[in-house]
Design a protein that fits this description.
Number of domains: 4
Strand content: under 5%
Strand order of the largest sheet: 1-2
Structural class: mainly alpha
Distance between the termini: 121 Å
Number of helices: 22
Helix content: 55-70%
Length: 594
């Protein structure tokens, strides 16, 4: 509220002053006060809803405190209240029918064959799923309580459609104007969807269609997974309360509901139930499945594996766990807005940290089956992080508690940098004083971020694997390799190249096994190259001597021993054979004897 000199309450009510317009007190745009208590100021979430001026002024035909509701039979369109047409009601009825039909269709789509390779259909559906997740993330970012530019605010409102922010799409035309009723119907979407699939499963048993229970569970999980960010933000909506200048608080999404009122209590009970049963319950169940999935697979418990197919089918088989980080992204982005609704800097820093951690995890594991999707996901995550950090440009100068928070964050970041520098010094010192610290067989597990099995065990397992591969027919082996994913094939060719350079054949014979370029470690250590050659020479000499011995023994077995003289010659020749050192002399002596 602006209060110029010589202004009075009469001028505030009338909007005029006998001294001129510059002496008229008025409510600032974006704020609201009632006619009964004009000095109790409320903050509006949208400036178009509260144009300011005299007390009780609302824009766009809105009513209520603070300008948060349309009259019965109309709906808010983002700029004004419009009458509900018949087409809006019909549209919502059709949308509900399509949701139920889509869940049935989703069951039959889960029967598609799942392989480690990515088909064209899979790439298309995975891309669409990534688009939905990206829009949900942008919708969650748009919930940060700052004054976004109109262009960005419009984009965020579109993305928030994926978060079931359906009030801007005529939902009040079918649900009415009461905020608690609209919130209840929004929260019931997820339980009703699960019950609908259970009902379809029961009907299929009666009609002898025999829906598979594992596929039904997987379809339920896919439905809850797609809407998990939406479910998280919906469950936490009643907990997001922002403060007005007069000290009262309103629900962020339903500003007409005062926190602490009876209506807010009903909404809070609904939200907590949805959060505990569906959000946390589903998250715990998926976490357990992710941990147990390799065990179930090795024990051939394929029914359990197929029941949680929705968690793993989009990712590489060695990155099956990445469905869990994607799942927790929604709650992690919603939680800062809940606990720090009135403190945008806290929201920005917390959301940026969550997004950055998830981006690093994605780039470290590279989990998607399609390589291009990994690149796209990394680029999108990086851009969203930049979007969140640049939102600080729309903040006002921080003072008070937020200034202390900014100082703490800066100190924490500098402390982490100092810890990283200290770690570098420790690694340098270890490398100087302990040669076994890095680069040897006895390495520090902390430096290598984990330990590796002993070389003796690896050699034993490798020999056993070679023997198993030798027993597989060529065509069968080609078929199995052809079924591998792109990333798995790259690993196989990388291992072959590594073995050809460092382990199996000597360096001069490894060219035919090269699938990529690699520098041999023997290039920097002549001892490794010498040792590899000596093993090759010894192996060649042993092989040649063995073949010569077999030739000699087979030849001697065919010659009759008729006289003692011949036997004496044999003894002499045997002594000569024992003195021979290479294959050429063995062959010459054997030929002369024959």
């Amino acid at each position: 509220m602006t209060c110029p000199l010589l202004s009075n309450m009469a001028s505030l009510y009338n909007g005029t002053s006998e001294f001129g317009d510059e002496f008229v007190p008025q409510i600032v745009e974006g704020f609201f006060s009632t006619k009964d208590k004009p000095r109790e100021i409320f903050k509006c979430l949208e400036s178009v809803a509260c144009p300011g001026g005299v007390p009780g002024s609302c824009g766009g035909n809105l009513v209520g405190t603070p300008c948060s509701e349309c009259t019965q039979g109309s709906t808010w369109t983002g700029s004004a209240c419009e009458e509900c047409g018949v087409w809006r009601v019909i549209g919502w009825v059709l949308a509900i029918i399509l949701i139920f039909a889509g869940l049935v269709l989703a069951y039959y789509l889960t029967s598609s064959k799942m392989t480690s390779k990515a088909s064209t259909l899979f790439a298309t559906t995975a891309s669409f799923g990534m688009l939905v997740v990206t829009m949900q993330n942008l919708g969650l970012v748009g919930m940060i309580t700052i004054e976004w530019p109109k262009e960005l605010a419009g984009l965020f409102s579109i993305c928030q459609l994926m978060l079931l922010d359906i009030d801007s799409y005529g939902f009040s035309c079918v649900a009415g104007q009461r905020a608690a009723v609209r919130y209840l119907l929004s929260a019931l979407i997820f339980p009703v969807g699960v019950l609908w699939l259970l009902l379809c499963f029961g009907v299929s048993k009666l009609l002898r269609r025999h829906w598979d229970l594992a596929k039904v569970v997987s379809t339920m999980g896919a439905f809850l997974q797609v809407g998990f960010s939406t479910m998280s933000s919906t469950s936490m909506a009643p907990m997001m309360c922002y403060i007005h200048p007069n000290g009262q608080r309103s629900v962020l999404k339903y500003s007409g509901v005062m926190c602490g009122s009876s209506e807010h209590g009903v909404m809070l009970a609904i939200g907590v139930t949805l959060l505990v049963v569906f959000v946390m319950g589903f998250l715990v169940l998926c976490s357990y499945a992710i941990v147990q999935m390799p065990k179930w697979s090795s024990q051939k418990r394929f029914t359990l594996v197929n029941a949680f197919r929705f968690l793993v089918f989009r990712f590489r088989m060695d990155s099956w766990w990445f469905g869990l980080p994607m799942l927790v992204r929604g709650p992690l982005l919603s939680f800062p807005v809940v606990v720090a609704t009135d403190y945008p800097p806290v929201q920005i820093v917390s959301i940026a940290l969550c997004l950055a951690a998830l981006m690093v995890t994605q780039m470290r594991s590279w989990p998607w089956k399609v390589p291009l999707l990994n690149v796209t996901d990394a680029v999108v995550s990086f851009c969203i992080v930049l979007l969140v950090t640049t939102s600080t440009l729309y903040l006002k100068a921080v003072v008070g508690p937020m200034a202390v928070f900014a100082e703490l964050i800066s100190t924490a970041m500098l402390s982490l940098i100092f810890v990283a520098i200290t770690l570098m010094f420790v690694m340098t010192g270890s490398a100087l004083f302990y040669r076994s610290a890095m680069g040897g067989q006895k390495e520090f597990a902390a430096f290598n971020m984990g330990s590796v099995p002993a070389s003796k065990m690896i050699a034993k397992e490798m020999k056993m694997m070679v023997e198993k591969l030798e027993r597989i027919e060529q065509e069968n082996l080609e078929g199995r390799i052809g079924g591998l994913a792109v990333f798995d094939l790259k690993k196989v060719t990388g291992v072959i190249t590594l073995l050809a350079n460092e382990v199996a054949p000597p360096a001069e014979e490894s060219g035919s096994f090269m699938f990529g370029r690699r520098i041999q470690s023997s290039s920097f250590d002549p001892a490794l190259k010498k040792r590899a050659v000596s093993r090759s020479s010894a192996s060649s000499r042993t092989s040649r001597a063995s073949r010569a011995s077999r030739v000699r023994q087979s030849t001697l077995s065919e010659v009759p021993k008729e006289t003692n003289e011949v036997n004496e010659v044999d003894k002499v020749e045997e002594v000569d054979f024992k003195k021979v050192a290479n294959k050429e002399q063995v062959i010459v002596l054997t030929t002369e004897w024959l």
